[in-house]
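We close this part of the discussion by returning to an individual protein. The sequence in question and its structure tokens are set out directly beneath this paragraph:
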Amino acid sequence: MNSQNIGSYGSFYAVGVGQNTTNTTAADSTNVSQGALESSNVDLTREMTGQIVAQRGAEANVKSIQTEDSMFQTLLDIKA
């Protein structure tokens, strides 16, 4: 066990029975601003663009699989 009462067993970590692992610290200061508006930390334009790119990539993958399937079916028809 180390100073935080956590034991390592290979890639598994365990806490001993009855050991306290809760670490609490008090905040240095708190501040509440009346009438303030918190902005989102997400750029919606970038996220929507990324989603469109991902969707188009998935559509291209589906189309290539359909094309390969069609070519394989044509090959089987020629062989038969």
In short: The beta strands are 6-9, 12-15. The chain has one helix and two strands. The longest strand covers residues 6-9. The radius of gyration is 29 Å.
